Fold these 4 entries.
Entry 1:
Amino acid sequence: MAKSKAYENYVDWVRDAHAMEKQAETMLTKMADRLEHYPRLRERITQHITETQDQQRLVESVLDRLDKSSSVIKDTAGKMSAMTQAFGGMFASDEVIKGGISGYVFEHFEIACYDTLIVAAEAVGDLEGAQVFRRIKVQEEEMAKWLAENLPAVTKKFLSLVDSSDLDASH
């Protein structure tokens, strides 16, 4: 593969994807750790944490093949952003709802990033990378679909717990 400006952008975007997956793992872990009254949501998030860790390894494999490393600065910035977001949500009385909405939005952000990476990988001749990103994109689409289908039930349960219990319905 030629070391063109397009190629350098592609490599930067792969590094960004690695940082994004690190951020996703942090956000998902913080949320899963706090979900007490929503076992189906906790189970699906825990499954997606495992998928996210695999996605990190897949993105790292693309970086290794390109002979580039992930950006420590981007990874650290992503983790800090995720921790701040998770910490801020801990004090919201509707943490589970806001976390679910944020998760849904973040999944679509990831889908858009992988759409871009697929096109970029193909444009610079990294067909193996394009295949990796297609595989990851499917998992992100499945998680977004699950959230879309299940957030209404989570919302109903939250509202039910808020009105009928002394329990902390926020998580």
Entry 2:
Amino acid sequence: MEYARHKTHVVHVGKVKIGGGNPIVVQSMALGTFIDPDDIQNSAKKYATEIIELANAGSELVRIALNSEEVVRSIPYIAEAISQEGFDSKILVGCGQYELDRLIQKYPDNIKMLGKIRINPGNVGFGNKRDEKFERVIEYAIKNDIPIRIGVNWGSLDKYVVQKLIDENPLSDFSNAILRKAVVVSALESAKKAEEIGMNPDKIIISCKVSKVQDLIAVYTALAQSSNYALHLGLTEAGMGNKGIINTTAAFSCLLQDGIGDTIRASITPRPSESRVTEVTICQEILQALDLRYFRPQVNSCPGCGRTNSDYFRILADEVNNYIEVSMPMWKEKSLGAESMNVAVMGCIVNGPGESKHANLGISLPGFGEKPVSAVYRNGKYFCTLHGNNIFEQFKKIIDDYVVEHYYLR
């Protein structure tokens, strides 16, 4: 399905193209580890391990916090470690807050190894130092040809902008409407300042992060109507588990279907010991569900009911999902388009044959009281019938043969 995309400037971040109708980019953030000031090199290798895990999972950009001198000193070692795994340091996005101006001045050669810098207008500087520090950061980015993301967060809003809006609306309650307007005004005014300093609009990405779904939709709709900057979507502080996943999916889906958003990140809270790769998978699944990008074959399977025969169809669906997950890295290297394949695993005769015919490959298992045979369909037509106790092994070979026949590079 093709959606009309909001027209934005194209921003080049290393080899990644953001905006201008290019594929929507998946971004994540590394949690990071303690950087031992007495052992920067080995600490950096540990940090790089997480970055590599995220990149291998499909994160095209990985954000790191520039929150200390030790982290900035570790950048060359992180870059070296990830390059050994085939990743350029330009996949790294440096997130600067209060310390950014000072760190750029002290370690200019390290920070220019990054692909992009994130600036939070609310935290780059305060009082009469705010504009001065912002200008120095922008001038540094221009000099070193580094794109910036002006990243406003309603948890750290520019107090000057908020107060100005309150003064302009003295009879209004301090409501979400004011906050929505404040984040948009802060982002657009900061982008305008960056352009006045000399930065080209095709070097600017904007984000306005809020934590409520309707606020995010309203804010980004306003941004899309007011500018042509590339937009980074993020529902900040989305939460943990199903809450974070569902809220992020709801917000992103509404905006992406309206053509708004050029790069996305799922800002969910990982459970203890949970890998941050989960946030990459969430973004990929959202894009794939909307037919905007494809990352791995889709397995459709029914939920099961009284007609399905014991647990076998659920076991088979799980086996097929796991087999495709394991096989996809090899298919990615040898094939073109296998990620768009659709496979159906169905549990009875009611919807099984019909759903299987809609897929590239489908198998319809016997339901309760049905003849113990499993019909397989290929490209909408009956292909064969499987019997016996090793149906998964038989169906796995059919999947392999289909991938080789339809997707392998010749």
Entry 3:
Amino acid sequence: MSRSAITTHVLDTAAGVPARNIPVRLEFRVAGNWRELGAAHTDDDGRVSAIGPATVTPGDYRLTFDTAAYFGAREHFFPEAVVTFTVADPAQHHHVPLLLSPFATSTYRGS
């Protein structure tokens, strides 16, 4: 799969390392229902560059990160992190990083 119009990067801020091998799912909202566009795992650098189509349409998208799979038996509070966002200009690339620790998450619109 070529580079997606939507990409992500997960950093484990508690450990100070990329979050490797996190299952991630990309979905698009169609008539009020979510339709899966792709699924992948973060690579050794915590990145997912090929999860969905190379072009997207305007609308609402969401990335779901299976953080329970990442943390495993380690104590953690959130079993998943869900980031819902709107694509207004499909000509732009949308990079949606996730900063992760066992008890907090944060995200932003990256470049």
Entry 4:
Amino acid sequence: MAKKVQKSMFFTVRDENMRTAKCTIQRSSAAILGTRYKPSDQTILFFAAARRVGQDAQALALCRLLVDRKINIDINHGDALRQTALFYAARQGHADTIRFLISLGANPNVKDSNGETAMFFAVRKKRTAAVKALLDNGAHLKVVNKWHHTCFSLSPAEVLPVLQEERQKKRSYDESGPGPKRRRTAAEELRAWADEWPIKEPVVGKEIDFREEDVLAVKSVDKSTGKHGEYAVLSKCPGKCAARLRLSEKEFVYDHAMMMKDELFFEDLKPEDWCQNVGVLTDAGGAVEGIKGVVTGKTGSHFTLPLVQKETQTIAGYVHATYCAEEHGLRIAHLKVDEAHIGQGLGVLLLDAAEQHSHSIGWKCKQTFLSVLKANARARKCYAKAGFRVASSTAAAGWGAKKQHAWSEWQKLRKRQLGHAAPTRSTRKSVHKYALKTPAA
């Protein structure tokens, strides 16, 4: 009989009207209140925190009452699934109860047996107020569960704006080290943006499975450089690799922005401004979906060729090109070799592969042209080695609502393609340093 009374106590506190629930806590002995609900190894605090949705004030009052009774209950006690009372407050959307439990020492980043925190439950159940309460009290957003999901990847549309706002705050403030948070500089914020994985799933697309028939060009790295293995330029790749290519694209934006870090206007520009400055889609512009369409061959007027380190099957850079019919030319819009792979002649490899691919898909290109910032000495050296020459120059300026600034000079470079003019010494040499391959039909 005592066991039945004890069992009913837990559900009375959770489900009955407030008056009955309070009376149960007040009239039960500390020893009884300190027992656990055997099937799931939960304390009475779990049931108080799990009052119905909309009963946050009642849940808070019952939790306070239990604390006032000075019952020996561990605030971070984990049940059979390693969940704490905070999980149940989060699931029910009890924001004030969440704040109270955390003020008592509840850890918002405890992981259950599935590797999930209380935040996952608040997000899944669309408890916006609970999500905000958890974020305000130190809950992390980068936790990955055992199925490789984060709160972002599971977030319904109703909660996503709150998570995005918090991510922006994290990007804007430096929380490392002791003391209060420090607002990041524009350069630090831009770096944080460039490093941020661009889609919900944190692991999808980091490695690339490709077919040998999709290899356009290969290059072996000289072991004397301290690096090893082969690199390959692909004619196409799986759409899931669009996120990883976007990461290289953001690095492309960052590199160009940092050339202007000493200019007075630098602090005024956000990542979105720099994207527009160099002709890259902003995050809000469907960048990943746009890249996915290009690399899977769904667009006929432009293409992106990934550069892959074959041994690790990871992306090392890319080239993005478009067709200019009026000039019978191939326009190199972006060319990026990731920092860890620079100095191996891979920029020239990408350029020649782009020219070869343009002919294989029927573009009648007699010349290749591109634009480069005069401040970008490393890129200009690469392009000169590939046979490009300066055709014209124009002043560059700020975009959007920002005040116009003449902050550098774009140089338009041009190169006659092989077969339409005698190759220069530099282009002739570059073609024979590696094998260009004809893609399978």
